[in-house]
Specification:
metal ion binding; binds uracil; globular; four-stranded antiparallel sheet; four-stranded mixed sheet; thymidine phosphorylase activity; alpha/beta
């Protein structure tokens, strides 16, 4: 086989065979196929797509390029959760301890943030001492002991995705369904959980811009999970505005704590209870929303969260420390009305410029910076009220405030903004 012939075959819109896909992916993972040929192939897939069979073969071939974690030493149904990326997405910080507080083992590998989207690992690393690296044995022992561990993706899993994702990131080939589905599902299958909840974000701040594309991505991933015997459910969630109030690593940890103290906004509190109900059901437990809310707000989830932070070396005092950012700048509304839009992408990029996110993989983060919104879409605001506070280590120039306000659209219409848009099983 020659790589150039297979690139041409895909470029001309033909289907690649199972053997051809296996050959391409193993050749890429071993270094025999260079980046320039793989990027041409990714672009051909971007324009010509892949059939269901090709996507399944791609996922399985990627899976074969690394180890698979065996979680069978942990009793019970192990559940995992994955988000396709968002702005202000601190869901795992709350959902994982909440579900674990019901005695369900949560063994999760998470990623770092890139561009306007955040990553759970970065938020956890904002806590002094927290360790994201664990051996497989330590990871399993922790889940056996306290039902919860969240660690960084092991280098040994899905080598092809490590290489391909970095390549896609710099060749404008990230946002295409077969490549996203195979990337996510190869990692989830390799991570070993029995059941998987996929949070597929849609909207301005997400890879999927339309609900139709989000449904197609969800269905593709659910089918891939089921094909290898993993119970898989996808929830399509709204990422047209940032999730919750905070964007930025420490600020999001603090918001997560606020929610687990029962002081969070109602919209995100309810959303997390709904996700927990699905995750618990995936683990074989039917639990009422009211009981889940009790666990979330009466300190049980928070106790589990603290236990988890301590177990992974985090400093409990530092966990509750407010942001040490040098400047807190209030953004004041010039108008009275109802917030119509807070585009997630724009605010994700704004927070990135403050140091809360990485423009490129090698960037260092400033864990203390970001944005906390006082108002969200659908909220009423009066002229002179605070829209948001900007946490920064450099002085915020008036020009930046003007830019910030340009993205806050205030009008007269009432807006109903829902978090969960659809559930695909
Ligand atoms: N998240 C992933 O892990 N892979 C993708 O391709 C996109 C989002």
């Amino acid at each position: 086989m020659r790589t150039v012939d297979l690139i041409q075959k895909k470029r001309d819109g033909k289907e690649l065979s199972t053997k051809e896909i296996e050959w391409l992916i193993s050749g890429y993972a071993s270094g025999d196929i260079p980046d320039y040929q793989m990027s041409a192939l990714a672009m051909a897939i971007y324009f010509k797509g892949m059939s269901k069979r090709e996507t399944r073969d791609l996922t399985m071939s990627m899976l074969e390029t690394g180890e698979q974690i065996d979680l069978s030493a942990i009793m019970g149904t192990k559940v995992d959760k994955h988000s396709t990326g968002g702005v202000g997405d601190k869901v795992t910080l709350i959902l994982a301890p909440l579900v674990a507080s019901f005695g369900v083992p949560v063994a999760k590998m998470s990623g770092k943030g890139l561009g306007h989207t955040g990553g759970t690992l970065d938020k956890l690393e904002a806590i002094k001492g927290f360790q994201i690296e664990r051996t497989q044995e330590e990871f399993i022992k922790q889940v056996q002991d306290i039902n919860l561990s969240v660690i960084g993706q092991s280098d040994k899993l899905v080598r092809a995705d490590k290489l391909l994702y970095a390549l896609r990131d710099v060749t404008a080939t990230v946002d295409i369904i077969p490549l996203i589905a195979s990337s996510v599902m190869s990692k989830k299958i390799a991570s070993g959980a029995d059941s998987i909840l996929l949070d597929v974000t849609v909207g301005d701040g997400a890879f999927m811009k339309t609900i139709e594309d989000a449904v197609e991505l969800s269905q593709t991933m659910v089918d891939l999970g089921k094909a290898v015997g993993r119970q898989t459910v996808a929830v399509i969630t709204n990422m047209s505005q940032p999730l919750g109030r905070a964007i930025g690593n420490r600020l999001e940890v603090l918001e997560a704590i606020e929610i687990m103290q029962g002081k969070g906004r109602e919209d995100i509190t309810h959303f997390i209870c709904e996700l927990a109900q699905i995750m618990l059901e995936l683990a074989g437990k039917k639990v009422d929303l009211s009981e889940i809310r009790n666990h979330l707000t009466n300190g049980q989830a928070l106790k589990k969260f603290e236990e988890f932070i301590i177990y992974q070396g985090g400093d409990l005092e530092d966990l509750y420390r407010p942001s040490s950012a040098n400047y807190i700048t209030e953004v004041i509304s010039d108008d009275t009305g109802i917030i119509q839009e807070l585009p997630a992408l724009e605010f994700g990029l704004f927070a990135m410029r403050l140091g809360a996110g990485r423009a490129v993989k090698s960037d260092n983060l400033d864990y203390e910076t970001g944005i906390v919104f006082d108002k969200k879409v659908g909220d009423r605001i009066e002229k002179g009220e605070i829209i948001a506070k900007i946490y920064s280590n450099k002085k915020i120039e008036p020009k930046m405030i003007t830019e910030f306000k340009k993205n806050v659209r205030i009008g007269d219409e009432s807006v109903d903004s829902k978090e969960i848009l659809k559930i695909i099983v």
